[in-house]
Amino acid sequence: MLHFLPAPMRGAIALLLYTINTTGCFLTMTPLILLKVIIPHDETRNYLTIFLMKLGTAWVTINSYILKITQRMKIRLDIEDKDEFNNFSTRKSYLVISNHRSWADILLLQHVFNRRIPFLKFFLKKELIWVPLLGVAWWALDFPFMKRYSKEYLKKHPERKGKDIETTRKYCERFKYSPISVINFLEGTRFDYKKHEQQQSPFRHLLKPRAGGIGIVLSSMGENLSKIVDVTIIYPENNPPVDFWDFLKGKIPAAVVNIRSYPIPEKFAGKNYEKDAAFKKDFQDWINKIWEEKDERIEALISHQGEQQSPSDTHTKV
To answer: What are the tens digits of pLDDT across the range 230-282?
Structure first.
């Protein structure tokens, strides 16, 4: 709808619309957030969280509309099992794992999965709670905040070792009682070639995966999860890193979102990731295998980027 406008103007309008939507949603949430702060009763707070998540879903829906009217980006869904995808439900819980190419990934994932699975919740750095509006909203929506410590810090403060894992486990215990989608970018940061080189990553298109977070999720609530949803995102006409401002300006013409799902391995559910060394190694090997397959998938998607997609393979409306 706004595609005829110059890119900088379209980017500014998109940013304004996203800001207005976020501010409006936050103001609507405010009375419920205040009630959640002052009411100590856990069951009542849980009901308030459910209402808050409905408002969060409305926020995502409006963001999706903004995406459609400000972008020409063609979103191709590459679904491994369409029947499984069509049977996703907001009444079931999922663990979603993905590679990370851009800040646009979050909007894209919310757009694709909105109303198909429960409201997506991310593990966030504790410092992000201070982000204006969003920080408080994330807290109210029960997003898990984690304090991550560097190896250097832990050497000086060994008493802090395991605190981030303890926090993850506490949040997972809370997530057992209602449907949830927990999403984790296993690389821990957005991909770029400098980070890739510094890590000496064995993968061509990915950083090394960090298995600890989802290891704890499966240890704590694996029996409550329906599926692991494995998402692979690429922007075939853009070299990483993909700038968010370029996204707003419409400089990302295409995105490919590959979706496949796995059953929860029975041998992983209920195990102790921190203390069971055999489980930890098996789990890390399993994640590395998934990452090897994902790397091959990205290579295949990139090598075929010039091929013409049939109308049934290309989805601009999800």
So the answer is: 999 999 888 887 888 889 998 899 999 999 998 888 777 667 777 778 888 88
49 assigned to some structural domain:
no
Q: Is the dihedral of CA 142, 233, 268, 203 positive or negative?
A: negative
pTM: 0.85
pLDDT in tens, 47-77: 898 899 999 999 999 999 999 999 888 999 9
Quick check: helix, strand or coil at residue 28? helix
Instruction: Give the count of domains, the chain.
Output: 1
CATH number of the structural domain spanning residue 218: 3.40.1130
User: Where on the phi/psi map is residue 133: left (φ > 0), alpha (ψ -120 to 50), or beta?
Assistant: left
In three-state secondary structure terms, 192 is coil
Residue 293 lies in a domain: yes
Looking at residue 312, the DSSP 8-state letter turns out to be: G
Domain that includes residue 86, residue range:
73-313
Q: Is residue 23 part of a domain?
A: no
Those residues with Cβ within 8 angstroms of residue 267's Cβ, 6 or more apart along the chain or in another chain: 279, 282
